[in-house]
Structures are given as C-alpha cells and as structure tokens.
User: What shape does this take?
Amino acid sequence: MFISLTNASPAHRGQKIGIKKDLIVTVFRHVAVREDQSVEEVTFIFAPPHGTWEVLESFEEVMNLLK
Assistant: This one.
C-alpha cells in the first residue's frame, strides 16, 4: 500500500508523490535550509533505497497515513 504526500523540494514543490508504506524507516520534522539560505520546516521521510523525501505534510499527518 502507498501513501500520497506533497513534495516540498524546491524543484518539485507541490507535486504529489506516492511512497510505499512498508519502505518507510523514519519520519521526522525539521528545518530545511535552501540554496538561497532561506529556511522552511518540512517533514523528512527516509525510505531506502531512494533516500530522504521532503514533504509538506506535518509529522502527525504522515503518522496518521501510516496507521
């Protein structure tokens, strides 16, 4: 099963992504520093083998989708 989230990466911001639930290893909320030195709070999702996704949904929203 997949969960649908919204990409927060500047190059793909606002685009929907689907991540397979059983691949997600960690979820945490933190500040992302952008190339222009601006900061934004996003939720990081680590899902190997891809790596880490930045999404707009809150930690709580992601955790509810994973239930």
